[in-house]
Amino acid sequence: MNSEGRPTQPQIATPLAPQTFTGARALQIHEALIFDTGRLDFTGVDLDPPKPFTPRLGGLERKSEIGLPGLSEPETMRHYVRLSQKNYAIDMGPYPLGSCTMKHNPRLNEKMARLPGFADIHPLQPVSTVQGALALMEELADWLLKLTNMDAVALTPKAGAHGEMCGMMAIKAAISARGEAETRKVVLAPESAHGTNPATAAALGFSVRAVPAGADGLVHPEAVAAALGPDVAAIMLTNPNTCGLFERDIVEIARLVHEAGAYFYCDGANFNAIVGKVRPGDLGVDAMHINLHKTFSTPHGGGGPGAGPVVLSSRLAPFAPVPFLKREGDRLTLVEETEGTQSFGRMAAFHGQMGMFVRALAYMLSHGADGLAKASEDAVLAANYVRVCLNDLFSSPFGDRICMHEVLFDDRWLKDTGITTLDFAKAMIDEGIHPMTVYFPLVVHGAMLIEPTESESIVSLTLFIATLRDLAIRALRGETERFLGAPYYAPRKRLDETAAARKPVLRWTPPEPIED
């Protein structure tokens, strides 16, 4: 980079791109909707008429044509390959979505998940025929308990929000067992909490009491103490929080919550920053969900549904949902019934997503305990590298402080430029980089939340930083047209996002016939 922080490689000028007959631009192939391409009276597969049969759908069988367009096999393949080429992906470049942990998914994990005995088992098989799969789940649970220093784990939740529901249902069951269901009706949630936290509490019949964050972006014990009372059931706190900061007073907050007779739920969405470095059980946490699809490979459910196991302290372990694993000698079984237990019941029909369990354990075994700790260190180091390299141009809402695995900027530096956070994010698309998370957390105006993750190399990070510096310098120089019309090179250019959200077109209608 030169003294201005801009790339030093030569910028190659290109002539104005001509219009093409097809609408394609070389390898950027224009692709119409499949309904505009295929024919309703055509199919790419020859099927013999069925022999006479008696329907078994109770009168619910289709009476009319299905109305799907037919394509030949080559046309079908080309259609979906072309569509896939219009999607950004972690295998194409960095995906710096703050709070989302979009990192590389090791192919070894994918290979393991596709092994026979994992990929082809059925949830209704007798447990005697899936002992290997249950053993894998047992070992995964053991790793999760050791990494968190908790007493029990529920593997059934399918994602973070589902895990939140599980943890809070365990808390509700524990409060009910104490005979306080009618008095403890309030859940505390910091103003910077993930939106699912208050939503989960409200869905379970609790009212939500907001806890303000301090000027430093952290929750302070005094604010928690002021909100506590005999009506409080729990607090839901994210650590590291959504501002990318470690809650330094979390142990004191846990002490205050427990002294008030309430429980401590920790949102584990950001566990990726502290795995192998901090055990939530040591901090006083009673329940925490873990996004396997973020922390331990398979970002955001790639290859199937997510998984959000919940670890529970000894205070909540008796209330874990069924089914749960139980070892009887050298055999494993699943406890399916709640009779004789304090379990709050069942979260889902079956135990969980086997592919996610395999990927997560493969990730753990590949790294080892020391490797997991190193991954956390690298995630934090990468975020701080971005912070240090951008802090002379970007503005930080809580000062230039060491962050955890994600760094948060606001839009004060764009004041008087006529450019917004959204405009800046759209310009990143033209540079071939997925934008960071914008306008979240809500407590920061024009937020830009960047999480580079531990899987980006120093070369990748340096190019990312250089690109953002170049865009920032252009914005501060007043090159507004570069931003206000961006993205220029995306297949559909800039969309009216408000209209798309409020008036989505969800049904294809045939175009009007062209008259001769």
TrEMBL record:
Transmembrane segments: none annotated. Its EC number is 1.4.4.2. Keywords: Oxidoreductase, Pyridoxal phosphate. It catalyses: N(6)-[(R)-lipoyl]-L-lysyl-[glycine-cleavage complex H protein] + glycine + H(+) = N(6)-[(R)-S(8)-aminomethyldihydrolipoyl]-L-lysyl-[glycine-cleavage complex H protein] + CO2. The keyword Oxidoreductase applies. GO terms for molecular function: glycine dehydrogenase (decarboxylating) activity. Residues 182-301 form the Aminotransferase class V domain. InterPro entries: Aminotrans_V_dom, GDC-P_C, GDC_P, PyrdxlP-dep_Trfase, PyrdxlP-dep_Trfase_major, PyrdxlP-dep_Trfase_small. Residues 375-470 form the Glycine dehydrogenase C-terminal domain. Signal peptide: none annotated. The glycine cleavage system catalyzes the degradation of glycine. The P protein binds the alpha-amino group of glycine through its pyridoxal phosphate cofactor; CO(2) is released and the remaining methylamine moiety is then transferred to the lipoamide cofactor of the H protein. NCBIfam families: PRK04366.1. This is glycine dehydrogenase (aminomethyl-transferring). It comes from Candidatus Rhodoblastus alkanivorans.
